[in-house]
Automatic annotation (TrEMBL):
Pfam families: DHQ_synthase (PF01761), DHQS_C (PF24621). Gene3D superfamilies: 3.40.50.1970, Dehydroquinate synthase-like - alpha domain. This is 3-dehydroquinate synthase. Residues 170-308 form the 3-dehydroquinate synthase C-terminal domain. GO terms for biological process: aromatic amino acid family biosynthetic process; chorismate biosynthetic process. Catalyzes the conversion of 3-deoxy-D-arabino-heptulosonate 7-phosphate (DAHP) to dehydroquinate (DHQ). Its cofactor is Co(2+); NAD(+). Residues 58-167 form the 3-dehydroquinate synthase N-terminal domain. It comes from Limihaloglobus sulfuriphilus. GO terms for molecular function: 3-dehydroquinate synthase activity; metal ion binding; nucleotide binding. The keyword Nucleotide-binding applies.
Amino acid sequence: MKELTVHAQSGGSRVLVGDFGGDFSRFVPEDKPAVIITDSNVAGIYAERFPDCPVITTVPGEENKTLGGLEKIYSGLLECGADRSWFILAVGGGIVCDTAGFAASTYMRGIDFGFISTTLLANIDASVGGKNGVNFHGYKNIVGVFSQPRFVVCDVSTLATLRESDYRCGLAEMIKHGAIRDARHFENIEDNMRGLLKRDISTVETLVYESVSIKAEVVAQDERESGLRKTLNFGHTFAHAIEKVCKLAHGQAVSVGMCIASRLSVEMGLLCEDKHQRLKGLIETAGLPVSLHEKASVLADAIAGDKKRHGGEIDFILLEDLGKAVIKPIPIARLQEIIRGFEF
């Protein structure tokens, strides 16, 4: 087991990475009543391992990560008599963690919560850092809060139950962390991709810990995304538009988004072509897409609704090198113009 702490302005969050064998009961606080929030997919696999406490089971899928989905959680909390003295334990992937964290942060103006992450994508990204939210009118995570969980448990043993496509989606966020912040981590992913794809426990645990450490360091410096944390959005401006328009899974959309942003970095004279090809090659080796069948112009209108915009600009994340991201404010109209003439 490996452990670190996210030292954020709003409070600390303990992160545990290891093989816990799906033993969820050990993470329920002994000093207060608890309720579990999960989805039907996770419950179908692990319900017998849940501790003896109320369980709120949500419907899986991005289309249910909405204010309507939140209402059902609030209703469940009221039905089981939860108050401010209770603890919410979310068990599941990114959607469960995002939604449960938002519910916990707003129910009765906030009650204590923690996450047990059961997917690679949630291990590396969604469960760590204190961002909690839901989608609204097709826009990703546009309604939400910053609120740190008491703890995050990344139980790598649960990754064995993931579909291959879902597992590979998590590799996209791992590659992203190396691309924007740590060239050594990027190299370690390259060197250990075979072990990652085989889901070797030791390899996965080591690289998940490295990746989470990168994000923890960024969040500690900029919890509320006023500067450095924006670099974690590398590939995501395009990815959110791709998800909305092309209906790809998040990790697949991020993969394509990173390739587009990397190519744009080359076009703007910031990144060498060989570094772009290296990033693209690693994404392909991970079994993830690097391009779209649709023309890039279909993304232009969707970009305008991105939550990272301010006024008429978007803080766009580009690469100067592998392991070094840069933030460049680009007018939305100019970005749309670039996209409409962009081929990838």
